């Protein structure tokens, strides 16, 4: 199968179900930013050290694999035409992978576990410290942009279903997760995280 189809050469692409839209469509901006975030998460995973008998990185590796899976699920829902645009949209939507309703609970459990070993915050944290923490802050910043794009899409397209609210909730919590994960990486590296002292 060829990767190139030439169907997008004039600046349009297909949503799930086949409807053609402009590549400047807000949906493309929303799930395109999720794709960008997923790439950065993949880079972060590649930066993780190999687990040894002394030190394991398996927990972080498994959590980030879970994040990548959920980002693909969210992206597939964003790439779906609305019922108003396509009368067959409900049929196509039924074929999509379900949003994991326990994703937020898992993120919160992970944050609580990591937070138990962190110093209380007394200043704003600047992005940086270890290489892993710095890469994680990039993920956090891109996740925030993805969240803004998704919220803008929902508001301008007047979308307000349970799945749309769940997507916004999951992306909001993911931002928090990356922040705590960056602090966790600096702690594991025994590097004092940079703080902003106004």
Explain what the structure shows.
It is a single chain. With 198 residues, this protein is mainly α. It has a single domain, classed as Up-down Bundle (Hypothetical Protein Ta1238, Chain: A), CATH 1.20.1200.10. It has helices at 26-47, 58-78, 89-93, 103-115, 131-156, 162-188, and strands at residues 12-14, 20-22, 124-125, 195-196. It has a two-stranded antiparallel ribbon. Strands 3-4 form a two-stranded antiparallel ribbon. β1 (12-14) and β2 form a beta hairpin. The chain is elongated and about 55 Å long. 28% of the residues are buried.
Summed up, what is this model?
This protein has helices at residues 26-47, 58-78, 89-93, 103-115, 131-156, 162-188, and strands at residues 12-14, 20-22, 124-125, 195-196. With 198 residues, the chain is mostly helical. The chain has a two-stranded antiparallel ribbon. Strands 3-4 form a two-stranded antiparallel ribbon.
């Amino acid at each position: 199968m060829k990767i190139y189809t030439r169907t997008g050469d004039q600046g349009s692409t297909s949503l799930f179900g086949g409807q053609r839209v402009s590549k400047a469509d807000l949906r493309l901006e929303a799930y395109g930013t999720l794709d960008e975030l997923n790439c950065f998460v993949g880079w972060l995973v590649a930066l993780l050290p190999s687990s040894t008998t002394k030190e394991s990185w398996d927990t972080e590796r498994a959590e980030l694999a879970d994040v990548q899976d959920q980002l693909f699920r969210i992206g597939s829902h964003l790439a779906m035409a609305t019922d108003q645009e396509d009368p067959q949209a409900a049929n196509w939507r039924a074929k999509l992978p379900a949003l994991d309703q326990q994703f937020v609970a898992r993120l919160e459990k992970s944050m609580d576990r990591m937070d138990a070993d962190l110093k209380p915050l007394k200043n704003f944290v600047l992005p940086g410290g270890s290489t892993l923490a710095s890469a994680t802050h990039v993920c956090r910043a891109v996740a925030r942009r993805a969240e803004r794009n998704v919220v803008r899409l929902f508001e301008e397209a007047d979308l307000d279903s349970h799945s749309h609210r769940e997507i916004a909730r999951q992306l909001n919590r993911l931002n928090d997760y990356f922040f705590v994960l960056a602090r966790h990486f600096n702690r594991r590296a025994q590097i004092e995280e940079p703080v902003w002292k106004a």
